[in-house]
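Supplementary Note 3. Input sequence used for the single-chain structure prediction.
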Amino acid sequence: MDTIPADTAKKLSTAVERMPAFPKSVQKILEITRNINCRPKELVSVIEKDPVITMKVLRVVNSAQLGLTTKITSVNQSVVYLGQNTVKNLALSIAAIGILPSTNAAGFDIQRYLMHSLTTASFARQLCGIYAPNEVDPGDCYIAGLLHDFGKIVFAQYMSEQFKQVLAVSAERKVPSCVVEHEVIGADHTIVGAMLAQKWQFPQALIDCIRTHHTQDAPNTGMNDCLRMGDLISRQLGDAKGTHPYREGEAPINPQRFGGDLAKVIAALGDMDKLVADAMSFAQVSLSK
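The predicted structure, written as discrete structure tokens, is reproduced below.
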């Protein structure tokens, strides 16, 4: 924040403070899972006290997306079959999607934004298992993908006139929105997104990842690399059209990890249609009442 003018920093802080908080149950999940010695039954107990989160977690767990052959009827079973971190991240993902606004004065396409975030999350998780095994939890890469552009939601909701101008200029000049955000707002969505992640008390590694996902010389950690590559692939497929589309000639993401052939990286992900379909399914479950 020290490179941002004081008046801009104050406006960003005010906008972030106006964003809804996570449900108390999800805040408690974050609190207890910061302890590496957290016991599964503690997590189960917190989730089960929130009937909405419980219902949606079970819907996702039993959906075709996860492909389990056994019907899961409790949060405890979910933890046994999927693991504590996966269930925690499911709850966080559902909560994050649940606070998305249905409309906004900036004219920002929330549905397109959501699909870009979910496909980026799915690709980042898949990339992690292939290119960064044992370096970072794939579920944490998923959360990074889901939240990486959340700063745009802050802009669309609470700095709508300026963000409307950003979207118009970005489309007219055919330049990334983050470039125009600096010109119009004085900071881009990565900065305000990191501020929001800090407000929500996410781990520092995730906050840093959100802050640097458009920075060319970002640290080459497993989470950073998988998020940035997942974002690039999602944009190449067209899911971010009109917000931060893919452009030929973009600098490669850590060639030492992924090599120089993007087509090979995409091929390594397997059935892309299934990954996109799973993202759509997750969105429908998370947005349902």
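The two ends are 38 Å apart (CA to CA). The CA atoms of residues 148 and 210 lie 5 Å apart.
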